[in-house]
Amino acid sequence: MDTELATMRAVRGHRRGGPERLKYEVAPRPAPAADEVLVAVRSAAITSGELAWDATWTNSLDGTGSLRLPIVPAKEVSGQVVEAGSAVHDLHPGDEVFGLIPFTQDGAAAEFTAVPAAVLAAKPPSLDHDGAAALALPGLTAWQGLVRHAGLTPGDTVLVHGAAGGVGSMAVQIAVALGGKVIATAAGQDAEFVRALGAERVIDYTAQPFEDAVADVGVVFDAVGGDTQARSWHVLRSGGTLVSIVSPPGPSPSPDTHGVFFVVEPDRAGLIALSELVESGRLTPYVDRVVPLQDTAGAYAALEREHRRGKIVLRVS
Ligand SMILES: NC(=O)c1ccc[n+]([C@@H]2O[C@H](COP(=O)([O-])OP(=O)(O)OC[C@H]3O[C@@H](n4cnc5c(N)ncnc54)[C@H](OP(=O)(O)O)[C@@H]3O)[C@@H](O)[C@H]2O)c1
Fold this sequence. Notes:
By secondary structure, the protein is an alpha/beta fold. Helices cover 24% and strands 29% of the residues. It has eight helices and 15 strands.
């Protein structure tokens, strides 16, 4: 292979740390394993906290595995298959795909990424690559949280914390699509945005303790953590569930309520369900801004300090 075909432009971290560790550089182009496809990345999306996760830098979700350096961040991808591994029969060069890359593998802040075929699905036709990249991780997180972990049933009241954010904006829409009645917490400036997503009520978390205004909730979807999570027990009805994506809830103060923390998993069936919601007009991913690949480090820094609605997307090509 000539040098140009063997390399690509990528953002990589050579030492564990924050955005300051990321370098835009020329890197070897990955070769797909038998069960993988090589994807020409069109857009990638990033998530706050990602550079602090053990799985971003090691071979395990909990950090017990060995360091994996250098790493390519950004696990949310949309692009086009350019090569299929020898054992892949359901994806072909030219297919437009999106998905969540396993956390312990290199990500999509690069011109190419090798991804297990089983975790990719066809890009929703009505979305461009920016929208599809923005959908993958927050959509799957909200879907798995509400369906698999909370067992949401139609008519349930759902309280979504962090409803204007990447995951929260998906959770509001998916809960509504599943027949839930949504109450949301968000900053006052985001109240109209969150109402437009389908929330029946929006509580400004900067102005009022939500527990003064909410009671008898079937499901709390917690994308904020900390004190917000701890105070959430008080608003659950008997039999209610507190689902957190930020940290494991402490012990339930009541035998009738329970808490669960989970980490989203790559999931083709979930992507297909999300795609159906998008195509039926019930789910829209929100892109706050699109930045070029070479500005990835700045984009990660912005995630931690700037107000946003929805996702930051890296435009790769
Ligand atoms: N376990 C998993 O599988 C998983 C998956 C995805 C994400 N996560 C984690 O989940 C968290 C949320 O992710 P994200 O991508 O949705 O983040 P995000 O886009 O930054 O959204 C967080 C939202 O929470 C709002 N917020 C902050 N404090 C609040 C409060 N006290 N009450 C209500 N809302 C509040 C923020 O609003 P302001 O702009 O007003 O601050 C922002 O809109 C992050 O910690 C991320 O690492 C975990």
